[in-house]
Design a protein that fits this description.
Layout: H1 9-20, E1 45-49, H2 57-68, E2 72-78, E3 97-101, E4 104-107, H3 111-122, E5 130-137, H4 142-146, H5 149-159, E6 164-169, H6 177-202, E7 213-218, E8 231-234, E9 243-249, E10 255-261, H7 271-276, E11 279-285, H8 293-303
Parallel strand pairs: 1-2, 1-5, 2-4, 5-6, 6-7, 8-11
Antiparallel strand pairs: 3-4, 7-11, 9-10
Helix pairs in contact: 2-6, 3-5
Length: 308
Amino acid sequence: MRRKRVLPPTVLILCTAALAGTAPAVASPLTAPAPTAATPAAPLRILLTNDDGYNAPGIRKAFERLTAAGYDVTIVAPLTNQSGTGTKTMSAPTIAVKHPEPKVWAVDGTPGDSVLFGLSEVFEGHAPDLVVSGTNFGPNVAGLATHSGTVGGAVAALESGVPAIALSTGGLAVPDPTATVNAMGPTMDFAVKLIDRLRTRARSGPLLPKGVGLNVNHPVVGADGKGTAAGVAATFQDPQAPLQPDFTDSGDGTWKVDVRFRPQPAAKGGDVEAVNANKIAISPMNADWNAGPAEFAVTAALVAGVRP
């Protein structure tokens, strides 16, 4: 059975309020600290990863736009395409790592391996302020997110206590390569705005509530992908699994596997509904796989009285 990440209500409220731009409380003049001279903020330090490979168009566009925004960005990403590897990590006793250019590390492993190497070695002793995974070629909504290497990279960061954002570009239709690559520009323009908002609201604290990451899906708008999204929606991961396998027996002990795309009706308020409406879907997520209080109560009732 596929497990679904469910956030506690308080975390969802905190995250949604941050995205909606709720005004912060204003301190009383009697209790507010005396003003001090402004000091330039240190550049935000970002570990940038993905699952398409360290030289893919999405991560290079992300590096370009995030660096131009004034962030201190270091790529630590897979050497080769690792799409669909999910949260897989540390499956081999050794790992090869290349350092082909300044600020770029290429890890011969999964996105999770890349993030763990980056946190342990590249950022040793001084964790980054944020891990950004993407932007991915194609969407990571609904069941696609559960098995996504892009999301897996963000999950590895969350497990290590580092705030993380997964970025993806694409809609549920069969992607047009040129339009999707073009839409990576608007995706990263929005990502810069989002990160700036998080930093402004966080002030000197963490960018996101502890253990919470964001799964951001930007649609491809217009025939050329250069259009502007219709809005931004705080969403949840649609519970459907749009990819369905079809197995055919070859008669020689092997089976042909064909993956078919069969989307179901979109859940109200979910990420699929938002992307279908050309909106940017932002779903909060955590990494510990816990269900919510209601599911815990049901489980407790089911096992009540059962003895070993």
